[in-house]
Amino acid sequence: MSAVHSAGRRRKPSFERRFFFLVSGALLIPSALAITLVWTGTFSASLAWTITGIVVIADLFSLHFVREGIAHPLRTVSNLLWAIREEDYSIRGRGAGDDDALGEVMIEINALGRLLRENRLGSLEAYALLRTVMREIDAAIFAFDGDRTLRLVNRAGERLLARPAERIIGDTAAALGLANCLESVSSEAVEIVFPGGSGRWSVRHSNFREKGLSHQLLVITDLSRALREEERQAWQRIVRVLGHELNNSLAPIKSVSESLASLIVRDPLPSDWAEDASRGLGVIAARVDALTRFMDAYSDMARLPPPRLRPVDLPALIRRVTQLERRLDIQIEEGPATMLFADEDQLEQLLINVLRNAVDAACETGGGVAIRWMEKDSGVALSVIDEGPGLSGSANLFVPFFTTKPNGTGIGLVLSRQIAEAHGGSLRLQNREDAGGCEALLTLPI
User: What is the pTM of this model?
Assistant: First the structure.
């Protein structure tokens, strides 16, 4: 048994040795016949030895040249494959042609080298682009291996930890103070203090595999800067609108007050001074009432409570709201019997605001108003369509206190969109493509 196994494990002769034996056997038979004929013929002994030596030398030279003719191309192929394995794609095999088998092998190896070279150049360019993007992106990016050891970090990550990459590559997440970020809920906004700054951060992490091994990618984004910029822009809009409204009310109040002050110091008083004073005080009172309504509307927008979700029959709610509008008969295009989980009072206020705007627009042109709804993608899409003049511009539609109506407050659409977004939906206005007028599109989840 052991002898059989040892024989099975006996080293197999090399290709060159096997080829040498094969060619030797092929040359041995004709050479032996030739030598036999020489020695059995009428040749002298010296001539027989000479012929025998020539035959043997010819056989040896034939074996050598045949062996080299096979071994050299094989070594060339081996060197080419070794160069490819070492990622050196600049070496090419000579003698490549399609007129013999060896030439076809060289053609395929050269083509493989060119293909791998192009793929390598593409990978290097893509990797260089990735590193450039990672270096310039504002979000801090960290890549950890399965042992939570840092393997990659971008420039923002260096600033966040206040340490260069060469000093933190190889450290664990716990040593860097990032273990809690890897264990937190992904996409969560948290307050964290880092060596390079503090504030509100968005933390996201995910898993990926490299060479079959699991890795973790951690992305930390600074929300404070974006929030501060949004807050600054919001304050600018509010101050601009508040200043405009206050100036519109304070300017006539100041003018009327100065007129009344100059009136009451006259001696003697004019005969109609009481009527002028009453009229001036009425103007002041009207402007004060307008300011009061303006501030009440602002308070309503700022104090919008969170929705109290309950089952709502959407078709019944639509029919009830349309009955509140007496100026026009609103056309209801019946849709499916949809049940929503929403705050019925807030949703009713939203529909009242949207329908009122649609009727106001339709009354300008003598057109009509229609409302329809449909279910799609686990939600409902409700459209209020009017035949009014359409929108001249949509940039300021949802800016608080912006209005084009003489007695408008600029709050209705803002409140309506807040209500829609509080329910996980959206509200947008757009001009109709099939005809004149505007379409208010409300989407809500079912």
Answer: 0.42
